[in-house]
Amino acid sequence: MQIQIEYYLILSAALFIIGVTGVLIRRNAIVVFMCIELMLNSANLTLITFSSYLGNSIGQLFVFFVMAVAAAEAAVGLAIIIALFRNKRTVNIDEINIFKW
Amino acid sequence: MNLEFILFIIFAAISVSSGLLMITRVNLVIAALLLVVNFASLAGLYLILNAQFIAIAQVIIYAGAIMVFFLFVIMLINPEHEKKFMDYKPQLKIFGVIISILVFIQLTYIILLSKPSEGVSREVEASVKAGTIEQIGRELFTNYVLPFEAVAYLLLAAAIGALVLAKKKFN
Asked: What is the 3-state secondary structure (H, E, C) of chain B?
């Protein structure tokens, strides 16, 4: 019995929704960031599923680029979090409102 | 029930449960370590899907580099502990969870409705061949060499940007 492609897609949707839920219910900037990584990974899982089932390596190439962009995003985002923490002494995203007045 | 299916069930259960545990933990370090478990189980799923190179890259880049970076930042700033799940604005959080569950049901419905497996017959040899480092490297350095260079510049820009942003003073 082969695994149907739907199983992978539903698992990927579940992981994405877990990430969205984390972004919605958590107020800590670092956890929000980790949830974004989780969502990127669920998209990667979909790409690799289709790449494997179609026998085409372009999807895996795209996952490689997504990983590079995720690394860049994590570096810049965590630097922003460090800079914010240095100025505001908090990483709670409800209290970070320096662009509001 | 062959081995592939059993492994899929195990890795899927690990990834979903570690994800759910991750978004509910108050302790940041435990959440980061659960995310490492999640990435490792995803690497296992990639191996089931015959994507060897991406599985290894997943372990090295995500579970290795990015999560070490996260743990390093958690150690650096040592933030105050967040309140427990239901202490702060519980209605808003329940609303968010309900919305997410509704979206998940919608997504599952659409996936099952569209029947993506009907037009796809998986050829194992082709998928094994597509996942080898030889095939990916050939594509990367012939047809996709321009995006590859662009990603290299993106990483350079991100490294310089992170240095500038995290610096103590601008002068």
From this structure: CCHHHHHHHHHHHHHHHHHHHHHHCCCHHHHHHHHHHHHHHHHHHHHHCCCHHHHHHHHHHHHHHHHHHHHHHHHHHCCCCCCCCCCCCHHHHHHHHHHHHHHHHHHHHHHHHHCCCCCCCCCHHHHHHHCCHHHHHHHHHCCCHHHHHHHHHHHHHHHHHHHHHCCCCCC
